[in-house]
Amino acid sequence: MNPSAVIFDAYGTLFDVASVAAACTAVTSEPEALVGLWRAKQLEYSFVRSLMGPAAYADFWTITADALDFAAEKLGLNLSPADRNRALQGWLEVQPYPEVKSTLDLLASDGRRCVILSNGSPSMLDAALTSAGIAERFHAVLSVDAVRIFKPHPRVYQLALDALATPPAELLFISSNGWDAAGARAFGLPVGWVNRTAAPLERLGFAPDIVLADLSALPPLLVVDAG
Amino acid sequence: MNPSAVIFDAYGTLFDVASVAAACTAVTSEPEALVGLWRAKQLEYSFVRSLMGPAAYADFWTITADALDFAAEKLGLNLSPADRNRALQGWLEVQPYPEVKSTLDLLASDGRRCVILSNGSPSMLDAALTSAGIAERFHAVLSVDAVRIFKPHPRVYQLALDALATPPAELLFISSNGWDAAGARAFGLPVGWVNRTAAPLERLGFAPDIVLADLSALPPLLVVDAG
Question: What are the sequence ranges of the domains in chain B?
Fold first, then answer.
């Protein structure tokens, strides 16, 4: 495997969203229940709005706020506007996983372009990249907002192909989300699934080409051109 | 509101899926964890495969079995083939909610056609209708399998329109799933959301026209033609 460019998912793949859990701890005594329900709803809303069609699209920041409001009401939490903002702020304060910077350095030193392809809205991604201190390391930061539909719709993966102007076989897509890995594989991209939690493989009919315990396992797997 | 036909979602709307929980109790000492994860994955797989495109379609029975396998592995349960079959069997042994038969009788006596529009595969729906003893009460039983994509994609709701050959304004769609109610509303159908659990309204931008504590609340809301 010798990709000329590597396409990364953002949240959960490059960015540890522990900052979201930390923000929830600041606003409720049951942060685990809130984070769990919030993230599940955020994902569900992205899928459901995508299936409903173009008129139902709302960007990821809106969906994230909507999912928080649902989760808080479901749990009987009466979040003040300040607490609501504090919780949402968690998405803007993410940090990279420990191995991210060294992995990106190694990929760059081998001449591989790195891009981000994320459900996040452009302003969320800007804030996250600044917070994580890795903004300059990417050739491009691609948001689904450009096509107004969320992963795993094929139009999203096509965005990366168009931006890189490179055949799929010369690319590699990396995600920690099993459904995102399957979606990219179904689209026709070579895929690496980052499985930090030893989760079972998703039964979606499209298995990843490689499975990585974390991102540091990636550079040694890639062939370096001689010369 | 005076619909000439009422379109019902099946699982959770007409059919109480307590039989699935009961089947899980027979195969594991932690049935609640299994049922919760199983149903969440079943839904996720239906959304994800629908977004991935036609080549990723698998029918609801396949998805249901795949979701069970994922959930069992995630929970460290080693289900024997017999236990796996027992758990799956729960989906074929559903019963109607207590008010279903009397509601269907009232709707029929007012001359309204009743149809089912479900993610379930045709054979799952056949078994469920027989188990619940309500097979003869429906003008049509429509499975998404005919269009090979799951709710809430518009093609699914179009199936009901085509089968009934009736303008949307003369129909009423009923579901207990907030995302399904929103999907039908986005498509353009009048919608009643059955909210048996006092759940919060989903934040999806398309609110139901009416909210029902259970199906018995429906017939009194409908106008009966004089004559």
Answer: 5-15+94-221, 18-92
Q: How many CB pairs under 8 A join A and B?
A: 102
Map residue B141 onto helix, strand or coil.
Answer: strand
Residue type, B150: F
Average pLDDT, integer, range B207-211 = 98
Cis (ω within 30 of 0) for the bond into A208? no
Write the Ramachandran bin of B206: left for phi over 0, alpha for psi from -120 to 50, otherwise beta.
Answer: beta
Name the closest residue on chain A to residue B185, using Cα atoms: A52
Largest CA distance in chain B: 62
Using the predicted structure, report yes or no on whether residue B134 has a pLDDT greater than 70: yes
- Nearest-by-Cβ selection for A47 from B40, B47, B55: B47
**Average pLDDT over all residues of chain A:** 96
Please report which residue ranges of A53-153 form alpha helices under DSSP H.
60-74, 81-89, 100-109, 122-132
Q: Give yes or no for B215 touching A (CB within 8 A).
A: no
What's the mean pLDDT in B143-166? 98
Confidence of residue B226 (pLDDT cuts 50, 70, 90): low
Closest C-alpha to A96, from A207, A14, A197, A206: A14
What distance in Å separates the CA atoms of residue B142 and residue B136, rounded to the nearest whole number?
14
Q: List pLDDT tens digits, range A15-48.
A: 999 999 999 999 999 999 999 999 999 999 999 9
State the CB neighbour count (10 A cutoff) for residue B67: 22
Report the predicted TM-score, pTM, of the whole model to 2 decimal places. 0.97
Q: What was the ipTM of the complex prediction?
A: 0.97
Write down the CATH number for the domain with range B5-15+94-221. Answer: 3.40.50.1000
- Asked if A137 and A114 touch (Cβ cutoff 8 Å), the reply is yes
Tokens of A137: 């390391």
**Contact B69/A203, CB-based, under 8 Å?**
yes
What are A98-150's pLDDT values in tens digits? 999 999 999 999 999 999 999 999 999 999 999 999 999 999 999 999 999 99
Residue A57, min C-alpha distance to chain B (Å): 9
Interface residue A69 vs chain B (CB under 8 A):
yes
Say yes or no: B195 contacts chain A, CB-CB below 8 A: no
Determine whether the interchain pair B203/A67 forms a contact, defined as Cβ–Cβ distance below 8 Å.
yes
Which pLDDT band, with edges at 50, 70 and 90, does A227 fall under?
low
Q: Is A209 in the active site?
A: no
Which CATH topology does B18-92 take?
Answer: DNA polymerase; domain 1 (1.10.150)
Taking 80 as the threshold, does the pLDDT of residue A78 lie above it? yes
| β pairing state of A140-143 and A171-175 | unpaired
Is A128 within 8 Å of chain B by CB?
Answer: no
